[in-house]
Design goal:
Number of helices: 3
Oligomer: single chain
Structural class: mainly beta
Number of strands: 32
Strand order of the largest sheet: 2-28-27-26-25-30
Radius of gyration: 21 Å
Helix content: under 10%
């Protein structure tokens, strides 16, 4: 059965889409096309009851779209040629794929310490969400009290010490009815989104970080419901946001755009990649790159897994999936691209089933033919990561580390009283440590209550 998704993240998407459909977008004359980003279904789900629950469901929610009134410098997206491009799609025979449960052996709990060490154990406010793609800091969206304004604040969790100073106490547009809905950080800067769901307006802000101090916020984009609220990423000195046309809206046929601004450079944004139609997955940040999934310029619907250099935005690697296969998440690690499906296809050979896939061996750039593959056969609820050679994935409740070479794996212990999704994986990319978190609301037999977000930092032994 498909696994249950985080209850604090389940409820947001339907409410967000309902709010969006209630408004229309007023497109500025002669403005360049500006789509907005997709919110992955792995992070959302049911209808929200309160604005507070919507906010807690913001896992993966971002912001951006067409200009609402000028003041931003945007470059036109490069339009595809009229002639269709020639593509070669990935082919993976069924016998080229190893799967969990057929060949793999679990590492016992008594042996776990020989393979992975707990190097950080921190308590944050209940309902916290966090994200990281490095070994230093994580961006945190902290809740406030149920009746208070602001609804959320932004903190930076230092993964070595556990300190989490608040760097943004309220939305820049709080007086106008905006709340902070999503945030990402690198060591050099912060990107976040604010939204006024009553008016159907969103905004994207960035600010540089200098020794933990937040620089002056810059409003780099804003829009309304003709475009989806963008997903966001921070890589080094670069802030990215992905803009997609809203499904069923007046701009459905528009291109999708990936936009970027350098931290500290002000509000001048550039469009660095365009896609005919909607991109499939949110941007996936690495230490020095970004994975996106544009559509190919073909009459068939094909998604191209694309790795961009974060500084130059040049394509470093790419591979095209079979026709109509729509990935839920896409990433990159030690063996190249990873991708996951939350649906089952009756074609595609060894990559036709639900689960998360990655090559089982290293290889050259754009050379994915004839490889052995590994598949983690669980309903995907988080993008995977790599740490010291281990493939790190989210299972039904626990987070697992997989040694693809030896076909062994470990599962991290689950905390008593945790939410029904168990541990959630906060890390993307390839790092030397990885971060998990879980929200716990537990009442002991003696009546004492534990209500917190437990964040743990793990260091697996390096695989040779």
């Amino acid at each position: 059965m498909p696994e249950r998704r985080p209850t604090h993240a389940k409820r947001a998407h339907a409410k967000q889409m309902n709010a969006k459909r209630a408004y229309t977008r007023s497109k500025p004359k002669q403005a360049p096309k500006a789509p907005a980003a997709r919110t992955p279904s792995s992070s959302h789900g049911q209808t929200l009851i309160t604005r507070r629950h919507f906010l807690y469901g913001a896992l993966g929610v971002g912001a951006a779209a067409a200009l609402a009134g000028g003041g931003f410098a945007l470059y036109s997206a490069a339009q595809p040629n009229d002639a269709e491009e020639e593509i070669t799609v990935l082919q993976v025979p069924e016998d080229a794929v190893s799967t969990l449960g057929t060949d793999q052996e679990a590492i016992g709990s008594d042996e776990l310490g020989n393979y992975v060490s707990l190097v950080g154990n921190f308590e944050l406010p209940y309902g916290t969400l966090l994200w990281t793609n490095n070994d230093s800091i994580a961006a945190c969206l902290l809740p406030t009290s149920e009746s208070a304004r602001p609804l959320t604040q932004v903190a930076l969790l230092y993964l070595g010490s556990g300190e989490y100073p608040i760097v943004l106490e309220e939305a820049i547009g709080q007086a106008e009815g905006f709340d902070i809905y999503d945030v990402r950080a690198s060591e050099q800067g912060l990107i976040w989104t604010e939204a006024n769901i009553l008016d159907g307006i969103w905004r994207v802000y960035t600010a540089s970080l200098n020794n933990g101090a937040l620089g002056s916020p810059a409003l780099v984009d804003e829009g309304n419901t003709g475009w989806e609220t963008p997903t966001i990423a921070a890589v080094g000195m670069n802030a990215f946001w992905q803009v997609l046309p809203a499904l069923g809206g007046e701009n459905t046929g528009e291109d999708s755009l990936l936009k970027r601004v350098r931290f500290g450079s002000g509000s001048e944004a550039e469009t660095v990649f365009s896609s005919t139609g909607r991109m499939s997955t949110p941007p996936y940040p690495l230490a020095d790159g970004l994975v996106i999934t544009p559509r190919t310029n073909t009459s068939t619907v094909n998604y191209q897994l694309t790795l961009l250099d974060a500084d130059t935005c040049e394509v470093r690697d790419k591979v095209v999936l079979p026709t109509a296969m729509k990935p839920l998440e896409a990433g990159y690690g030690d063996n190249g691209f990873t991708f996951s499906f939350d649906a089952i296809y009756n074609y595609g050979g060894g990559i036709a089933n639900l689960g998360t896939y990655t090559p089982a061996q290293t290889h050259g750039t754009e050379d994915y033919d004839g490889l052995s593959w590994y598949s983690f056969k669980r309903a995907p609820t988080a993008a995977p990561a790599w740490s010291n050679g281990w493939f790190i994935v989210k299972s039904k409740q626990s987070v697992c580390g997989i040694d693809i070479g030896s076909l062994t794996y470990f599962a991290l212990p689950i905390q008593s009283g945790c939410d029904d999704y168990g541990d959630y994986l906060a890390t993307t990319g390839a790092t030397s440590t990885f971060v998990t978190y879980t929200n716990i609301n537990d009442t002991a037999v003696d009546g004492t209550t534990k209500k917190l977000c437990l964040v743990r930092v793990w260091s697996p032994v390096a695989l040779s």
